[in-house]
Structures are given as structure tokens and as C-alpha cells.
What we know:
Helices cover 7% and strands 21% of the residues. The chain is mainly β and 205 residues long. It is globular and about 70 Å long.
Amino acid sequence: xxxxxxxxALSASTIIRARVFTENDTQxxxxxxxxxxxxxxxxxxxxxxxxxxLPVVVLDPHGAGEWxxxxxxxxxxxxxxxxxxxxxxxxxxxxFDLLDGAGRDNPQPLLGLxxxxxxxLVSPWSYDRAYVRNAFVYALGASLGRWxxxxxxxxxxxxxxxxxxxxxxxxxxxxxTERIKVAPARVNxxxxxxxxxxxxxxxxx
Length: 205
């Protein structure tokens, strides 16, 4: 395509959307999207020495700053604030949905968990100072044969300034968690029919 020729030099964290066109622009392929993070490699805030045995998750709204707890989805390589009282904690939790370039659901098996499009990053604070209570109870419930959210502990970075990712963006440990929802592979409740009016039909699940 005449829109692009030669390499691209990136000086900041960037989201790139690209597609291939025929020479006469009458046909084109699907949109491909990729995100690139610029990481600080020098100075006292450099990430060169950062090391962890846990997976690393980076939230980067590309300069959008901190999000309010407004129940609105904010499009970015990021998420929306999760919780009510916990939304005011210094350490935030987040909900996020995985979408493709056209805004359609895009389920992915994050960190070895089952593919899903909606996830939570739970950052315990005063409610769970040990950081393991929810994960332990979920695992205990699953071991008893009932469905419970699966979890993965991660190291979280949240770059709200739109600048280079560095040590100041570190937010500590968070828990990637499957969202609880009614679905055959999760909370498998039988849907009610319009004529299910008796106690036997509307009780349990």
C-alpha cells in the first residue's frame, strides 16, 4: 500500500493497527493489531534488574491516566475499575474484556487458564492481607467437585502516565481470576421457562 513504506521507528509505547492492501486498493486483508511497550533500561527506575518467578501483566492506557470507578468500559490495552468499597483502595482491582480489532469478543486462554473473554485482576488489600484467601477457597471448592474460579498470581505494572514503563509503575502482586457467570462450563444453572412458576421449578439450579 502507498500508505506505508520502510521501517517504523518507535519512541514510545504504541498500539499499531495494520492491514495489507492490493496495489490498486480494491482488496484488503484483516486488521492486525499489536502493542509495543517502551521499557526503561537506564537509571534508578530501570527494569533491567527486575526479576520474578511469576508472570508479568502490564496495563497501559497510553496516557489516559487513572480511571474512575464509573462502570464504563474504557477502550485501551487495559481494564475498568472493579469493586465498590475496594475501588477506593490505593491498590486497584480491574475487570477487563478481550476484544478483537472490530470490537468482537475474543476469548483467550490467559496463562494456561480456560479461554474466556472476560477476566478480573483482583488486588487484595485490607480484605485479604495474606493475598491467598480467595485463591485457596476457590481451589478448595474445585477439589470438592464444584465449579470455582481458577486463578493465577501475577506481578502487575500499571503505566498511567503514557511514558516509559519503569519501576514506578509497579503495583505488586495481583490475582488473575476467572469471572463468575452463569454458563455451562461455569455456574451451570438451568434457564427458567416462562411457565416455571412452582417451587420445584424455581428452586435450586
